[in-house]
Design a protein that fits this description.
By secondary structure, this protein is an alpha/beta fold. The chain folds into 2 domains: about 200 residues, inorganic pyrophosphatase (n-terminal core) (Alpha-Beta Complex); about 130 residues, Roll (Diaminopimelate Epimerase, Chain A, domain 1), CATH 3.10.310.30. The chain has 13 helices and 12 strands. Strand 7 and strand 8 form a beta hairpin. The protein is globular. It starts with a helix and ends with a helix.
Length: about 350
């Protein structure tokens, strides 16, 4: 099924479909999944969107959100059944089955056709059909392109357009990151002509805060942001007690890491925080410095050249010490590259 035509033929009869996205889905992961789900439903398929974990409540407005099946141990069997029954499984906005816990194994075992729609570097080869482009700023943009290639532009309604626009908006950092090409504006423009509402989506995603999140951000910026000019690096850490003190919800720390990068002369910014029983790292960089390489090599992670993530199973303090220990290895690159 490596060709679009075979893929299209497979979808010409009603299918049982599962769409899965990455752990702690962001607006691109969830927006692209819900946009694709709404489209496939219109085509007469039965579609289930499964997320491997919960996600921030500021994404709950996305059309179709109410039907998302959020994984937890108690419904493991129900999810396993859905995955086993699926005839086609779409994996959106991630490229390694190892990133989605036990659902990854269920997918690996399944005899369903597998489709990868993604833009992360170095994908695992497991899919029968791939819509993969690391130059694309968002998975949502790749879903849009797929629907266009399938000749189904007219099936993109305002809800689907809003879902896809949300992914495009956030993965380009509001059309500011260096992954924002001419194509991203072209897609955005067409989504707006199909009914996407940029003012509404921006307000719901960027300009909707809880007071607790704003207070947490104030605390992080005034008390927790550390700058290491000799490495052109900024970092911040948050432990469980601090997160609890500010009544933090899932996703509240999203975007904090970017503030480190906005300091003049800083090329690498890292946010390290406790998340349940693991430590999560968020990396951002400017120019040629690849955080993907650093996240992959030392923190069991990956992503894009200038935006990556990873995890650590040691304590927050030990993770920070480890990060500070490896920093000298990158000193030359941090100081010399453009
Ligand atoms: P964030 O820092 O916003 O969580 O993630 C930045 C980018 O890195 C996103 O594209 C995300 O999908 C990717 N990413 C985040 N965490 C991980 C991880 O643990 N493993 C891998 N492979 N990619 C990650
Ligand atoms: Mn993405």
């Amino acid at each position: 099924m490596t060709h679009l035509q075979q893929f299209n033929e497979f979808l010409s009869s009603a299918r049982e479909v599962v769409i899965v996205t990455h752990h702690k889905p962001d607006a691109d992961a969830l927006g692209s999944s819900l946009g694709l789900a709404a489209y496939l439903k219109k085509k007469g398929h039965q579609v289930f969107v499964i997320t491997p974990s919960d996600y921030p409540s500021f994404l709950n407005w996305l059309p179709g959100n109410d039907e998302v099946i959020i994984y937890n141990d108690r419904i493991e069997n129900q999810i396993a059944e859905r995955v086993a029954k699926a005839e086609i499984i779409f994996c959106l906005d991630f490229s390694a089955l190892g990133r989605i816990n036990s659902i990854g194994e269920m997918i690996r075992k399944s005899s369903a056709k597998k489709v990868l729609i993604d833009h992360h570097l170095e994908p695992e080869k497991f899919a029968d059909f791939e819509q993969w482009d690391p130059k694309a700023a968002s998975t949502a943009g790749l879903v849009y392109e797929l629907l266009i290639e399938l000749g189904d532009r007219t099936k993109i309604d305002a809800d689907i357009a809003d879902c896809l626009y949300a992914g495009l908006l956030t993965d380009t950092g509001g059309f500011r990151h260096n992954n924002t090409r001419r194509e991203e504006f072209m897609i955005a423009s067409d989504l707006v002509s199909l009914g996407a509402n940029p003012t509404k989506v921006s307000k719901l995603i960027y300009d909707t805060n809880t007071l607790e999140r704003l207070r947490l951000m104030g605390y992080v910026l005034s008390e927790k942001l550390v700058v290491l000019p000799e490495y052109k690096t900024a970092y911040m850490t948050l432990n469980q007690e601090e997160l609890k003190k500010f009544g933090s919800q899932s996703g509240d720390t999203e975007g904090f890491v970017n503030y480190g990068l906005s300091i003049e002369g800083i090329r690498l910014s890292v946010m390290i925080y406790q998340r349940n029983d693991e430590v999560k790292l968020s990396f951002r960089s400017l120019g040629d410095f690849s955080v993907n390489e650093m996240a992959r090599k030392y923190f069991n992670g990956g992503g894009h050249k200038n935006a990556s993530g990873g995890t650590s199973s040691t304590s927050l303090q030990a993770t920070l010490e480890n990060f500070l220990k490896i920093l000298p290895e990158y000193k030359e690159k941090l100081l010399s590259e453009k």
